[in-house]
Amino acid sequence: MVDRRLIENFDWWILLVFFAIILVGLVALYSALYQQIQASATNNLFIRQVAWLLMGLVCFVGFLMIDYQKLKHFSLWSYLAVVLLLLLVPVVGTEVNGAKRWLSLAGVRFQPSEFMKLIIVLHLANYFSSHEIKTYPRLKEFVVPVLLTAIPVLLILLEPDLGTALMVLIAAMTLIYFIGIRLKFVLILLIVTLPMIWPVWNYALKPYQKERILILLSPERDPLGAGYHIRQSKIAIGSGKLWGKGFLNGTQTKLRFLPEKHTDFIFSVLAEEWGFLGCGLLLSLFAALVYLAFRVARRSKDRFGALLVIGMTGLILWQMVINIGMVLGMMPVVGIPLPFVSYGGSSLLTLCIAIGLIENVSMRRYVFHSR
């Protein structure tokens, strides 16, 4: 028998906003893929995205059923399992466009790095709540979180996948910020990190990654090459004006001037067709989702639940901020999708799980846990 309090504490507003963002995403994706949908019935990426969405909703419901406190027992094993998958990627992974980021299982291709974004939040939330760690921990208590974060970040960088590695790092930093870190520790981190910029630039970054950063600093550097994406994205966004050109009427999209229109630059498609008002609606929905999720964290009765929600919300928030910063030319293009909107099965699946975990904590906030 289902505990009635689970239903009473379910946050229906989060579900409503979540579905609204999904709907906006499907409309934008259909428009971005319209020509491909009309030309091919066998390789329909839109249908694939819908299939991934259905799988995501199944996972969403599944993670509602499990008491989030029980996930503590699986956090370490989950972390080790995904690290193992990341180690397998360079050996048996599928290469696409010069990068090995995918594994194939029963004909389904997925990115282990996407799941690490969830696992790092789960495991660090467990670490900070299971140990006798108070607010503003001592420096030595950050050693384990740093090592736990550094291992997957380095493995993901080797694929190479700068965007996902950045998100794993940001997810960890978000939790560390909320648990509390002293200013002197931040200064120590800067002192240690700054000398690493030169070797990272010269030996770690790929030539195309360097070029993306240089294009950000000087957009006119290569307008027909590396700077083409940003240039066409800005044209698409600006041409939408207030009302937009209308559904399926975006010229930058339909004439194929806009690259990666169904993945990294899906926001540009939305801006061109629905204008400033359409973009404002989507941003308002994201803002509402973040606000409602942080309200769940504030109401949580235990540290693990609060940190779990903060970490999952941070994943959604920072992905949204970085993606929109990319298409506006304010950040380098690092391949981070727009949450729930961009095409990508692994990303959509993990984000649906993140929403399920946020609702999970909301449903069980009446249960008191000492830590």
| Unreliable residue runs | none
Q: Let me know the number of strands.
A: 3
- Main sheet summary: 3 strands, antiparallel
Mean pLDDT comes to: 86
Can you offer a commentary on this structure?
A hairpin with a 2-residue loop joins strand 1 and strand 2. Helix 2 (12-32) packs antiparallel against helix 14 and helix 15 runs antiparallel to helix 16. The protein is 67% helix and 4% strand. It has 16 helices and 3 strands. It has one domain (4-363). By secondary structure, it is mainly α. It has a 3-stranded antiparallel β-sheet with strand order 1-2-3.
Characteristics of this structure?
single chain, globular
Summarize the model shown.
The chain contains 16 helices and three strands.
Question: How does the SSE layout of this entry go?
Answer:
Elements: H1 4-8, H2 12-32, H3 34-39, H4 45-65, H5 75-92, E1 94-96, E2 99-105, E3 108-110, H6 112-130, H7 143-157, H8 162-179, H9 183-193, H10 197-204, H11 207-217, H12 228-240, H13 251-254, H14 266-299, H15 303-327, H16 345-363
Helix pairs in contact: 2-14, 4-16, 5-6, 6-7, 6-8, 6-15, 6-16, 7-8, 8-15, 12-14, 14-15, 14-16, 15-16
